[in-house]
Amino acid sequence: MRLNNPPVNTLSLEFLTELVISLEKLENDKSFRGVILTSDRPGVFSSGLDLTEMCGRSPAHYAEYWKAVQELWLRFYQCSLVLVAAINGACPAGGCLMALTSDHRVLADNPKYSIGLNETLLGIVAPFWFKDTLVNTIGHRAAERALQLGLLFPPAQALQVGIVDQVVPEEQVQSVALSAIAQWMAIPDHARQLTKAMMRKATASRLITHREDDVQNFVSFISRDSIQKSLQLYLERLKQKKG
Amino acid sequence: MRLNNPPVNTLSLEFLTELVISLEKLENDKSFRGVILTSDRPGVFSSGLDLTEMCGRSPAHYAEYWKAVQELWLRFYQCSLVLVAAINGACPAGGCLMALTSDHRVLADNPKYSIGLNETLLGIVAPFWFKDTLVNTIGHRAAERALQLGLLFPPAQALQVGIVDQVVPEEQVQSVALSAIAQWMAIPDHARQLTKAMMRKATASRLITHREDDVQNFVSFISRDSIQKSLQLYLERLKQKKG
Amino acid sequence: MRLNNPPVNTLSLEFLTELVISLEKLENDKSFRGVILTSDRPGVFSSGLDLTEMCGRSPAHYAEYWKAVQELWLRFYQCSLVLVAAINGACPAGGCLMALTSDHRVLADNPKYSIGLNETLLGIVAPFWFKDTLVNTIGHRAAERALQLGLLFPPAQALQVGIVDQVVPEEQVQSVALSAIAQWMAIPDHARQLTKAMMRKATASRLITHREDDVQNFVSFISRDSIQKSLQLYLERLKQKKG
């Protein structure tokens, strides 16, 4: 699955929906047992959630958007296929979340390709299920530090903290990801799937149980004047940077 | 306590029952404060659960066997004595589970002596309490990977991932285990026991609460035609290997 | 905040109350966004709980004292300010607990300055919320081992197990702590505070929910003859050492 939403694979409402439908199709097609998730956009795996979907819109739109983000995570985190992330570009925030849903993460060794949940730097807060996914991956203390400081880990640090499983030269990312997925697909599917479900069920259930509350929390948080203002400022600075 | 159920310390129904009774006796004998768990069979700590108890038998037998496996874990994991595993041989699946119930694990540095929960390789699934025990020992992410891939860690990797506490030359396993148990027994018993119970209570309670469901799950899973067929195939291959 | 309760910053009932009030004042004073916690007593960060408050007193006194210990932890662990511990001395038991409530821990590289929850060595047991705080910091397995053995980690080991974040030459502890707090204060306050609360809420709630039970447990445990005797012995030995 090659992510391709120019310019930087931002997770717009439309793109989120496409991703969920694509994964669903692959899961239902019995000829597929695994998926490599990688980017077709040079230098960026995914820039994460789409701030334009969270800024200057209606509460109903915020709610619709957030449900789509939840749906992406629920589908990918609980995907019965083997999911390997071949991270061939920068991987902040929502991009990192997608990578964290994989079974195995290979990161290209390029100092520009950092990975992390850097929400606090924008003045926003990762929801509890982003947090749970990170805690499951790097442990409680490292997650506490990373989430509060909004840390983006460059490759060597990413490997050390365990947010990725391998760091390899950029030109080898795809071939190493292929070797990794072969290792995972060598396991009897049924046993692997049941084990994966067992490992992730409690975490997924926490969101499923509180899904509506989580939407309400997001809508009321993102609708605040102070948050809207800081997002607008951030978006304007981004535009100036590009312009 | 020297494991001795020829040829490879397979955890048959009878051997499980013996182990539980032996440990109970040691707990009730006030002259004992700690136990070293090791093998009298060359090259094997324990080969794990007995597949012949899970194959071609009645549902009632499967249920009886599974209750005995639960009982072993509950007794050993909550044992008030200091438990040190001197792992002087291969330690897969149920053998690994037993080792994981210890307070301290010393592994002989022999590349043939790997340790891990490799159930998925046989097409079966470790139950949630095997999983909980492994997560408590090596963390969520390492456990997710190890359980899905059915990893058997050779000594250096076992030490690195934390599934054992020490790797030492084979001829020193017993003496190092003795030093370790001396360190643990130097702690006031009552305070150590209360602390151990506090650390392990939540995990043990999860099984105690769902014990009957867990038996039913096992019986219905193991009774499936597909599982029975793959276990039969595996057992036949084992026989041919030996023959 | 400079700890100064001669000779060794023992957490007496009075000192606990002072600490809580001081922190409360700083939280309410909007000109403060962060606090460095360090010691004014040479060689000791804090010697921990005050055994004289737990020995030869009335059950009502034990209950009052324990409530104050709970209050300290609840306030410090859930503090909305950035809290950095500049650990410039020995840091056992209750001193370690205080340090563990911080967002970042810097330890002076002096072999005499060890840190850990060594309660079992005195024949007593750390309560579940000490345990939860340690598990959140160093993980379940390391906490299980450290708590049962009452381990006091010297600097290099403390860094390796993750009970502190940095070990630096003694004369640099304060300046490194200042750099660390600057890094934490660079994050938008509101987002950082919400993230911190999200990370720590479940752990704090466990005590809040069981606060009264926890007091009763402590009072009945500490009132036992055997515990009182071993505390008296320990205190007498301490006096002789000093005398």
TrEMBL record, chains A, B, C:
GO BP: fatty acid beta-oxidation
From the UniProt record, list the coiled-coil ranges. Answer: none
Q: What is its EC number?
A: 5.3.3.8
Q: Which UniProt keywords apply?
A: Acetylation, Fatty acid metabolism, Isomerase, Lipid metabolism, Mitochondrion, Transit peptide
Catalysis performed (reactions): (2E)-tetradecenoyl-CoA = (3Z)-tetradecenoyl-CoA; (3Z)-dodecenoyl-CoA = (2E)-dodecenoyl-CoA; (3Z)-octenoyl-CoA = (2E)-octenoyl-CoA; a (3E)-enoyl-CoA = a 4-saturated (2E)-enoyl-CoA
Location in the cell reads: Mitochondrion matrix
Q: Which top EC class is named for this enzyme in its record? A: isomerase
Q: Which GO terms describe its molecular function?
A: delta(3)-delta(2)-enoyl-CoA isomerase activity
Pathway(s) this gene product operates in, as recorded in its UniProt entry: Lipid metabolism; fatty acid beta-oxidation
Supply the InterPro entries for this chain.
ClpP/crotonase-like_dom_sf (IPR029045), Enoyl-CoA_hydra/iso (IPR001753)
The record describes its quaternary structure and partners as:
Homotrimer.
Q: What does this protein do?
A: Key enzyme of fatty acid beta-oxidation. Able to isomerize both 3-cis (3Z) and 3-trans (3E) double bonds into the 2-trans (2E) form in a range of enoyl-CoA species, with a preference for (3Z)-enoyl-CoAs over (3E)-enoyl-CoAs. The catalytic efficiency of this enzyme is not affected by the fatty acyl chain length.
**What PANTHER family would the database entry show?**
ENOYL-COA DELTA ISOMERASE 1, MITOCHONDRIAL, ENOYL-COA HYDRATASE-RELATED
Annotated protein name in UniProt? Enoyl-CoA delta isomerase 1, mitochondrial
Originating gene: ECI1
